[in-house]
């Protein structure tokens, strides 16, 4: 029996493709353009947190001044990521499962617990 999916974005990918098709935006959705748009949205998300303290950043999704912006920018990041994966025909679930396994090999619990060192410094 295959493992339960970690990520299922099938419905979102379909909705985003339809959204683009309805507007004839497929012509603009090259991997390059989508990656650049994704990067821009990550920048907008980062900007929300830029001058916050560590403590304030932990509550940003609940604070009235930032909660809506955090939700919207996270949604933008998710949607561009899913659209990019769809255009590239990348199975995000398979990619996430493989990467999680590789990270487990690079960061074994007994070496990585309680440290932020990169795998090549463990």
From TrEMBL:
An individual GO BP term: dCTP catabolic process
Keyword Magnesium on entry: no
A GO term from the CC aspect: cytosol
Biased composition (Basic and acidic residues): 102-122
InterPro entries (UniProt xref): dCTP_Pyrophosphatase, DCTPP
Region span, Disordered: 99-122
Coiled-coil annotated spans: none
MF GO annotations: dCTP diphosphatase activity
CDD domains named among the record's database cross-references: NTP-PPase_RS21-C6_like
Keywords recorded for this protein, A-Z: Hydrolase
Pfam families xref list: MazG-like
Name the record gives this protein: Nucleotide pyrophosphohydrolase
Species for this entry: Metapseudomonas otitidis
């Amino acid at each position: 029996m295959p493992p339960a999916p970690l990520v299922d974005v099938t419905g979102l990918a379909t909705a985003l493709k339809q959204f683009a098709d309805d507007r004839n935006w497929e012509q603009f959705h090259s991997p390059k353009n989508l990656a650049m748009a994704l990067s821009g949205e990550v920048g907008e998300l980062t900007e929300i947190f830029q001058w916050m303290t560590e403590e304030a950043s932990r509550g940003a999704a609940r604070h009235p001044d930032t909660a809506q912006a955090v939700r919207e920018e996270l949604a933008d990041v998710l949607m561009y990521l899913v659209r990019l994966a769809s255009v590239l025909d990348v199975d995000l679930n398979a990619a996430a499962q493989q990467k999680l396994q590789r990270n487990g090999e690079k960061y074994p619990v007994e070496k990585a617990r309680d440290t932020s060192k990169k795998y090549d410094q463990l």
